[in-house]
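User: Here's a chain of 451 residues. Predict its fold as tokens.
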Amino acid sequence: MNKSTALVIDDEPAIRELLEMTLERMDIDVRAVGSLAQAKQSLQSGSFDICLTDMKLPDGNGLDLVEYIQAHCPALPVAVITAHGSMEAAIRAMKSGAFDFVSKPLDLGVLRNLVHTALKLRGQPRERRSRQVLLGESEAMREIRAKIAKLGRSQAPVFVSGESGTGKELVARLIHAMSPRADQPFVPVNCGAIPEELMESEFFGHKKGSFTGAVADKQGLFQAANGGSLFLDEVADLPLSLQVKLLRAIQEKSVRPVGEAKEIQVDTRIISATHKNLAKLVEEGAFRQDLFYRINVIGVHVPSLRERRGDIPILVDHVLDKLAAINHEPRAQLAPEALDALMGYRFPGNVRELENILERAVALCEDWRIMVGDLDLPESLSSRPAPGGEDAPSPPLPEEGVSLENYMDEIEKQAIIRALEKTRWNRTAAAKLLGITFRALRYKLKKLDLE
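Assistant: Prediction complete.
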């Protein structure tokens, strides 16, 4: 492979010299210039593998250069150098398409990690295997696949939103798999499943003897994901006390284990997700606004299955093929009327619920042919698809004066009650029938005053 090349733009000679020395020690050829005009001229006359630019230039700023590179050299990763504490500028740059950022005064360890990661993009195809895993031919899914391919070439924090069961973790895994971090760990964590008193230790690690029960040094999730990606699922469930420390870890790219005197540098990309309305939680004071803006640099919304009904036959074929392979049994076939029933079902549990319905149907059907009765769909959640469109007709509107939130809560409440009655109040079985986790069912029971 040819020697890597870097373009450095900074109007301070001392900074240019420091960057040149650091990169040349990494066996990278460097062209260093001091203005936006010189940078554009260099880009027009040469080819580079990475670009490092200061935010403040005598004839413009780093954002101008990021936008120019996005328009004329979209495959070139560009990182911006920001003033210490200027996170707003860094976030604006990444929203504009910057690969990553590094703050002044320059931490050479952080800089080298950034450069190593960026250089892995050289020669990497823009699309790899998302189409093979993220199924669907609806416009929404085509847009998500294209966005995933683009996000794989960035280090910007990503926030994945969508209802439970839509595949938010799958999207996160694909972003990681299409990134230069693909050969490093992808560490998923359900933020709502960790006891609050253990959260700091779980995220940042601890030293032996730092608290009762700390019988050995423990590596935290940030260290475990070093070089790779940390997926914070249900990030809305983090307590405010940890949100402060998480914000610092993301901004400073370092963590301090419990009982440790000094911080440890980490190179971890953050991908987060929740099914809750995070903006609303910010308004209510339940989630820090500064952390919200830090993790929500780029958003990806995963549509519900109701919003892409045309993808149901594709998903059905995929699930039935998978079940046949797992169980080493003949592939079950779906009767036309059974497919019609699925096309008219509202799927509150989305793709995860579809998988559960088909797994149950395969176990119940005879002669490997799934009939409507084998699906065991709740009638109250079934409706015919609207002619000529993917969406099923909306349920009756709430009465005047009834809020939409209360109305949807009532629909959810009735569905849970029917599932509990059908399973003789066996909560584990009811959760499986609804296509949600047992923990999620307990949360909903408490929220809807059903306990």
